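hey so i finally got around to running the thing on that chain from the lab meeting. sorry it took forever, my laptop kept dying and i had to restart like 3 times. anyway pasting the input first so we r on the same page abt which one it is
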Amino acid sequence: MNSKQKKIVIGVFAGAAVLLLVFCGVIFFQGKDAEQTMTPTDVAKSGEMADAPQPEPTKDPHEGLVRSSLTGQWVKPSVEKKRPVAVVINNIQYAYDRQKGTSRADIIYEALAEGGITRMLAIYQDVDNIKTTGSVRSARHYFVQFASEWDAIFCHFGHTKYAVNKMDELRTQNLSGLSGIGSTVFYRDYSMSAPHNVYTNGKRIKKGAKKLKYSLKKREGRQAEHFDFYEKETDLPGGKKGKSVSLPFSYYSTCNLKYSAKKKQYLLSEYGRKHMDIQSKKQLAFKNVIVQFVEEKNIDRNGYQTMELTHNTGKGYYFTRGKRRDITWSRNEKNNTMVYEDETGATLSINPGKTYIAVFPKNRQKLVKIK
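ok and heres what got predicted. didnt touch it at all, straight out
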């Protein structure tokens, strides 16, 4: 290589070195300028982004609540710990238009008494929710049996000898209007004719229970199973038609329940008109309807009824959301078991809400009309 060639090579290397130094300098000063040009606001913003609060998890709307054993609805634990109260309700036509407090009941049974009339048994979970209820009428032994299934304090004004015997047998804690506690628990509305003018309320019931040293707290293990509840409102899978049901208990009394898609409840009517609670001015409405067919007959010449409930099984229907399914029921009084079952033999699941139970004569089943 001659001297001229050597100079060219040296020049090329020198130029490359200069370009490399320039490039590195640009990169260095650009990075430094970037750091120097960040304002305090930029720094604050970057800190805010790092410290930005994360979205809070959705609060459980049922936090601190428990499921009611009577309705499946969410209630305060203090309510679920209360012992239910059962009240015999007059349902003869004269008293029908003067009922009070029945719309507050969690469960209502309806069954024949005598002479074709029906009576109701209103079950309340929260005695403090009873502002007024009635009119209150006399006990029948099968109402004693229904009350015992819920371990309820049984309230009545009058009785038959069969009811007294059943209360003795089951050791029913009852509040009777014909006992010394009567004036404490019950009062009369003299704007109405006796014996259809007897009423009571939660305060009076509690006072009477305390005087007789009855527990007002739920006694664990004393309630029969009856049914389970769906987690949320559910349509019956494969349910049959059930938008209305007509239940002719007798020539005198026919109960009609019609489903309201707007209210998603069955509305009760009898005697050709709406069944109203004149205190709340509300028509009686139920999320669930159970028709329980029973063997029923006269027990004596007075026309008093009896029903084969002590140790028996039978069939029935369950209605909800405009549909129905066939069910069976099984009761063993000795073991304090009473359960409704679906077609598969599993405990019946019902929707959360109030329930109406028609205890209906098996020999009149063909007269039941369903649409």
